[in-house]
Design goal:
Blueprint (H helix, E strand, L loop, with lengths): L1 H55 L4 H26 L1 H11 L4 H26 L1 H7 L4 H33 L4 H24 L4 H25 L14 H33 L5 H39 L2 H28 L12 H34 L2 H26 L3 H25 L3 H14 L8
Helix pairs in contact: 1-7, 1-8, 1-10, 1-11, 2-4, 2-6, 2-9, 3-4, 3-6, 3-9, 3-10, 4-6, 4-9, 5-6, 6-8, 7-8, 9-10, 9-13, 9-14, 10-11, 10-12, 10-15, 11-12, 11-15, 12-14, 13-14
């Protein structure tokens, strides 16, 4: 009797193992289905501003310097805030969709649009005084004047940018990816000749570049808006006004404000590092090389960020649906995929360290310094993949407040002070600044991983369901 029983047990074990791998493979396919189109979408949206900067570079050093300063300032005071607040919909819309409360997606998104358009007003007022602000903090008057012109022309971009970020989250929660992909590519294709005409033919200069960015974002919003209004895929979730919109605004800010803090604390650290590099000996070399490293890192970050959106969407959908184990599996599978991609990208980048600098010029001093920093850059790309995934899990779960505390500790209590000491006290220059940022990113990822590891997923599922059904008596539940 023992042999048949043993054979049966072995067969049962063998059958469970393939089933487990089948579940993991199925989840990996779901995450990749979201991540791969999002890579194209995010890169296309990112390239709209990059192409404008490339064209401005042909206008002269003064125009480029002004636009660069303006870009840094507008990122810190405007775009990062809107991007961070829009991330609240990853929690709200994702969990509502998973719970089958489709009408709440439209309610949350409508309330978010009202909220962000109101936020754009004080940002616009601040941007009007960019020139005076830069002169006040000691910037060159000529550069400040150019930056002021560029920023004022960039004000109309705020409003379509805010709506675009919200529509992307609205569609992402439903895994409606290809409309975003097609509209983003169409806007990029439209942007290239439009910017050339505005900058060079109509002689609008850097102001034309800023205007071109706004018009391209407007086209993207119009295309997505038409899709949302008329597509049968959005029939149940369509964005319409109702009396539930105003109560939903409070819920949006409840997640939006910690989302801003979480994202901006990290974003601003890199801007601070670039500013600090200007205080080092040979500031032109240090700033140029750190800017190259940041450009490469930012370009690659679109990939782990896209895998992160896959993780955030899958986690929020499964929590809303009440599937605790599926949410946990989605988080870890997406992390594995992103880290695997990061390992491949880091290896390729490290292998190209001798030629990487030539992509940004032929100055031997710059090329050699880029080669020296590339091993650190490769490590930071790997670390960023790791951290980006757990930030995405935090957004999908609704832990933005924990993410804010983690980023505060990782960047401002550890990473930034370390960067300053290494760069200015130990005289490691730009290498010290980059080590500090990489250390902060590593700490961020480790702390969020520990939080994820010890998460009670059943409790998170209950909280998500309560938020949608029981915790919102002021919202009408169908």
């Amino acid at each position: 009797m023992e042999e048949p029983l043993l054979a049966t047990a072995n067969n049962g074990l063998k059958s469970r193992v393939p089933r487990r791998w089948e579940v993991i493979a199925k989840e990996a396919k779901k995450v990749s289905y979201i991540a791969l189109p999002m890579v194209v979408t995010t890169v296309s949206q990112y390239m709209v501003r990059v192409i404008s900067m490339m064209m401005i570079g042909h206008l002269g050093e003064l125009s480029l310097s002004g636009a660069a300063i303006a870009t840094s300032l507008t990122n810190v005071t405007g775009f990062s805030l809107l991007f961070g607040m829009a991330s609240a919909l990853e929690t709200l819309c994702g969990q509502a969709y998973g719970a089958g409360q489709y009408h709440m997606l439209g309610t949350y998104t409508y309330g978010a649009i009202i909220s962000l358009l109101l936020v754009c007003i004080p940002i616009s007022i601040l941007w009007i005084f960019t020139e005076e602000l830069l002169i006040m903090i000691g910037q060159d008057p000529l550069i400040s004047h150019e930056a002021g012109i560029y920023t004022i022309w960039l004000i109309p971009t705020l409003f379509p940018y805010a709506i675009l970020q919200l529509l992307v989250r609205f569609l992402l929660a439903q895994s409606l990816l290809y409309p975003m992909l097609l509209s983003s590519v169409a806007a990029l294709v439209f942007h290239i000749p439009l910017s050339w005409v505005l900058i060079f033919k109509l002689k609008f200069g850097s102001g034309g570049a800023a205007l071109g960015i706004g018009l391209s974002y407007c086209l993207n919003v119009i295309l997505l808006g038409v899709y949302v209004k008329y597509s049968s895929s959005c029939a149940k979730t369509r964005i319409t006004f109702s009396r539930d919109v105003f109560p939903s605004i409070r819920e949006f800010f409840r997640f939006g404000i910690p989302s801003v803090v979480m994202i901006c604390l990290e974003w601003w650290s890199y801007e601070i590092a670039i500013l600090l590099s200007g205080l080092l000996p040979n500031p032109q070399l240090e700033t140029s090389v750190l800017s190259i490293c940041l450009t490469v890192s930012s370009m690659h970050y679109n990939i782990p960020y896209s895998f992160g959106t896959g993780a955030s969407t899958r986690v929020s959908n499964e929590l809303g649906a009440g599937n605790a184990q599926a949410a946990k599996l989605a988080a870890w599978v997406a992390t594995f995929l992103a880290v695997l991609e990061g390992a491949v990208a880091s290896t390729i980048l490290f292998s190209c360290r001798s030629v990487l600098g030539f992509a940004f010029g032929n100055v031997k001093e710059v090329v050699d310094y880029v080669k020296e920093l590339t091993p650190l850059l490769s490590l930071s790309i790997m670390v960023d993949c790791f951290a980006a995934m757990f930030c995405a899990v935090a957004r999908g779960t609704g832990w933005q407040h924990l993410g804010a505390y983690v980023n505060l500790g990782a960047y401002y209590l550890c990473g930034n002070p370390m960067a300053y000491v290494l760069a200015f006290v130990l005289h490691w220059r730009g290498k010290g600044l980059w080590i500090g940022l990489t250390t902060a990113s590593l700490l961020q990822g480790l702390m969020l991983m520990i939080i994820t590891f010890f998460t009670d997923w059943k409790k998170q599922t209950r909280e998500a369901r309560e938020r949608i059904f029981e915790g919102k008596p002021q919202l009408t539940v169908e």
